[in-house]
Design goal:
Blueprint (H helix, E strand, L loop, with lengths): L1 E2 L10 H4 L11 H5 L6 H14 L4 H10 L6 H10 L6 E4 L4 H10 L6 E5 L3 E3 L5 E3 L16 H14 L8 E4 L2 H8 L6 E4 L4 H12 L7 E2 L5 H13 L1
Parallel strand pairs: 1-2, 1-6, 2-3, 6-7, 7-8
Antiparallel strand pairs: 4-5
């Protein structure tokens, strides 16, 4: 079971949430308009450097991440998963950052549910600034330069196969365009859970229109995590 983080587990984009630590809870004009220069990952590096200059430190970031609300029904989905831990291997693939994700998952009491978290490396430097790096490099033309989730997922499944772990099926819960790329690699045994009305959902619908049958996984759109839990629960009965 693969989760995305921003606007999937949590109800916001955590990169936007950190702006609450800035003076007046806003970024200066120059940072708001330079997102186009280079990648989004590089834009966030500049944002974090600016926040560091303003005196924002680990405790401030931690407080913001911990207080990001969970998406509706996510708590129920996590309760279901913790009751059925022996049936699911849970991983998280996110283009956010490691520090923020771990802070939130710990605060929500669900960190131990995740076998592995894949995200951009982040740490505090000597000055106490939160720094961010790219996750990896890849050749996928559809994904941002710092992360292709399909590459991460296929490599993870290959690695688990070498360890002789065989999954009956893969479930993918996401919302964004970067979640569409890995979901295209799913098979007919697998299930994609795109968040209703978000880019991943629209892209699966467009693909189905243009190339019927090309998207192999079963598509189950969701608005609340309880719908995902209910679907998994039904599946366990069969």
């Amino acid at each position: 079971l693969v989760f995305d983080f921003d606007e999937t587990i949590v109800a916001e984009n955590s990169d936007d949430s950190v702006v609450r630590t800035a003076p007046g809870q806003a970024l200066p004009e120059r940072l708001r308009h330079n997102q186009r220069q280079g990648s989004y990952n590089e834009h966030m590096q500049r944002v974090l450097a600016f926040l560091g200059d303003q005196g924002v430190r680990a405790a401030d970031f931690k407080a913001v991440y911990e207080n990001i609300p969970l998406t509706p029904g996510m708590q129920e989905l996590f309760q279901f998963l913790s009751k059925n831990q022996e049936l699911f291997e849970v991983v998280l693939i996110s283009d956010a950052n490691m520090f923020g994700i771990e802070a939130k998952l710990r605060a929500a009491g669900v960190h131990s549910l995740f076998r592995k978290i894949f995200s951009n490396p982040s740490s505090f430097d000597k000055r106490g600034y939160l720094t961010l790096g790219p996750y990896h490099s890849h050749k996928c033309l559809d994904c941002p330069a710092n992360m292709c989730k399909r590459k991460i997922l296929t490599e993870y499944l290959a690695e688990r196969a070498q360890e002789e772990v065989k999954f009956e099926r893969v479930f993918y819960v996401g919302d964004g365009a970067n979640d569409f790329c890995p979901s295209v690699a799913l098979t007919s045994a697998d299930v994609a859970f795109p968040r209703k009305g978000f880019p991943m959902h629209r892209m699966t619908q467009e693909m189905e229109k243009k190339q019927p049958g090309a998207f192999q996984a079963t598509v189950v759109p969701w608005e609340s995590g309880t719908e995902v839990a209910r679907y998994l629960q039904e599946l366990l009965k069969t």
